[in-house]
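QA checklist item 7 of 12: single-chain prediction sanity check.
[x] sequence parsed
[x] length recorded as 388
[x] structure emitted
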Amino acid sequence: MAVSAAAAPAAEPLPRSIFKKFLVMLCSLLMSLYVFYCLADRCQTLPGPIIAAGAASEEDEGGGGEFLGGSAELPPWQAAAARRKRLLQRLKQRRRRQEAAPGAEPPAGGGGSRAGGSGGGGTLALLLGEGSKRLPQAIIIGVKKGGTRALLEFLRVHPDVRAVGAEPHFFDRNYERGLAWYRELMPRTLEGQITMEKTPSYFVTKEAPARISSMSKGTKLIVVVRDPVTRAISDYTQTLSKKPDIPTFESLTFKNRTTGLIDTSWSAIQIGIYAKHLENWLLYFPIGQILFVSGERLISDPAGELGRVQDFLGLKRIITDKHFYFNKTKGFPCLKKAEGSSKPHCLGKTKGRTHPEIDQEVVQRLRDFYRPFNMKFYQMTGQDFGWD
């Protein structure tokens, strides 16, 4: 009995220690449940479009089943997180393959859905489905063979510019599809970013000014212009590369070679009458809402012209001399680092083609023909482009 009585007091602290451990374990469990609940709630409310976008990317790669289905055993929030993780991994793999391909050009859509391009800023947020598709606030409306592709590629370096890679041709060929269709082509943008597209044929499309004005009277318009004689020869060179059996440049230029009457119905000639086309645009837009970029200066001083474009768009001057180097082989500037890549990027082989030799008498007659139109264009824009 004495031994029992002595041992009893020693056993009292044991329940206290167990109780403390139980409290600690209970608190830990409650904290874990709370954290789990927060994570589950967050994942369930993450935007959904990225899953659909990921599915489309997966189908492009030929392995959509696993990506779409996920794991049936996982809770919905974990399955969604896993799908996002796989999407990001596949996007990285695709980008590495594109960069590894010799002479590869970035896809027309810049990795977005359909024609949507991508900008530098907020990439992860855009991948997670944030931002929204907006109608463009700025459009490069012309001109063909003036340097519009180069300008668009240069602008896409800017983190606040998101541009459609492919030409939508909405205001000239697809207008009957409606603005909802057009908006769907646009990339997602975050607050403060500008949505852009470029379709050079708009400048010579009679209906385009009224249609764009109907969409938004505040749309900013950019026209890249080039010496109309050089532009016409470049236009012909492009057609010749696709149709080697077409007549000579000289025979297409004249209605009658003997009289020297220029055939203005030929599109290669007609596009270069800039003053005539501009008159149509000024019926709907003030001259201050249109920026005229020199195609020649875009080659000789790309940073200078891009500075003017950034100012016009109300953007910070981020694209500067440090972004360019001159490619002597191609004869025009290239980007040291293209949008979405750490490697230099030049426009493809379809740009900078060697022009055929043209009879200098024909060239001079064309210069004489364009001179009065050029002078009128200088007066209308307040700029002397130095073509004469």
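[x] summary fact logged: The chain has 16 helices and eleven strands.
[ ] second reviewer sign-off
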